[in-house]
TrEMBL record:
PROSITE patterns: RHODANESE_3. Residues 30-119 form the Rhodanese domain. CDD domains: RHOD. It comes from Microseira wollei NIES-4236. This is Rhodanese domain protein. Pfam families: Rhodanese (PF00581).
Length: 126
């Protein structure tokens, strides 16, 4: 049985800073057991975001994360800039999250590779 366990592939370990390729590879794994957090404001999130990302604006980040995510959860976080992503990751780590990765390049890098994005359609009143 021990020999069989070594044949079962496992996803690469989470890094403190990840390239969009790292996240895409993890998503392609099939059962990623991760959460993608977009810390930009709701308007920007609605315009476009990484498919599967959840909105948690910076000013609500820790409160919302603590109410919905386990401290051991693998989390990828991105904002407008790498500095925003780093600040969000720091907040989450200080709140007790152990597996947080800053997504380098954020949404622009994700889009540059042609990876999937979603848009939240809102009704327009004429």
């Amino acid at each position: 049985m021990k020999g069989l366990l070594s044949l079962i592939p496992t996803p690469p370990p989470l890094k403190a800073r990840s390239l969009v390729y790292d996240l895409k590879m993890r998503l392609d794994w099939g059962d990623p057991a991760l959460t993608i957090i977009d810390v930009r404001d709701r308007t920007d999130f609605n315009i476009s975001h990484i498919t599967g990302a959840i909105p948690m604006p910076m000013n609500e980040l820790v409160e919302r994360a603590l109410s919905s995510l386990e401290l051991m959860r693998d989390i990828y976080v991105y904002g407008h800039t790498d500095e925003d992503s780093a600040a969000a990751a720091t907040k989450l780590r200080l709140a007790g999250y152990l597996n947080v990765s800053e997504l380098k390049g954020g949404l622009p890098a994700w889009k540059a590779f042609g990876y999937p994005v979603d848009t939240v359609v809102t009704a327009t009143v004429f």
